[in-house]
Amino acid sequence: MSIHYSAPVVFLRSLLRSPATVGAVIPSSPGLSQMMVSHVDPNSAAVLEIGAGTGPVTRAILDRGLEPERLFVIERDPTLAAYLRRRFPRVRVMCGDALHAKRILADASVASVSTVVSSLPIRNLNDRNMMRTMKGILNAMAPGGQLIQFTYAPSCPIPSRRLGLRAERLGRVWMNIPPATVWRFTLDGRVSRKRDHV
Question: Are 37 and 60 a contacting pair, CB within 8 Å?
Fold first, then answer.
């Protein structure tokens, strides 16, 4: 008989086992989750979420109206991936590394996605691994696609110019522990008017 732990217990166990890859002290707050998904089009053919943890952003994406079958999640931690499959049985949850996002999506018969929502602790990576991971993610994105990424740092979390991306700061969520900033990166340079959030 398998034991199913609650979200806080699953999160804590994963954090203690691998703090660098979890990269957060608690799951994303509702305010952060809402800002993360504010540019997700519920009519998208497919949306990719990376580093879903216990699923607060996953839940927010679905609450925007995206059909679960069109949401694909890549989670590196096997325990968290198993938890997500139980919590969101219709969402396509795949255990793997964002570095291989294009191949993982291809295995699920998806050529590319227009939107990637990432909660990866990208600033925990050294420069070489960050660039490799980012290129892996960008390879899975369609032309004109967007990447949504949050960071606890006040500055841009990735070298956007080196990657040929246009960066837009969507806002900072102070009611998150710790406070977090959400960034939107576009492949084609088109970016919407900046908005401030508190």
Answer: yes
Mean pLDDT value across the chain: 87
Residue 179 has pLDDT above 90, yes or no: yes
CATH topology of domain 7-186: Rossmann fold (3.40.50)
Q: Is the dihedral of CA 156, 122, 187, 72 positive or negative?
A: negative
Distance from C-alpha of 3 to C-alpha of 180, rounded to nearest angstrom: 33
List residues bridging with 52 in a β-sheet. none
H-type alpha helices, the chain: 7-17, 19-22, 30-36, 56-63, 78-87, 101-107, 127-139
In this model, does residue 198 exceed pLDDT 50? no
Strand, helix or coil for residue 169: strand
Which of helix, strand or coil describes residue 9?
helix
List all residues 6 or more positions away from 181 whose beta carbon is below 8 Å from its beta carbon: 150, 151, 152, 153, 154, 169, 170, 171, 172, 173
Please identify which residue in the block is written with the tokens 């009611």. 175
> What backbone phi and psi angles, to 5 degrees, belong to 101?
-55, -45
Instruction: Give the whole-angstrom CA distance, residue 93 versus residue 77.
Output: 11
Domain boundaries along the sequence of the chain: 7-186
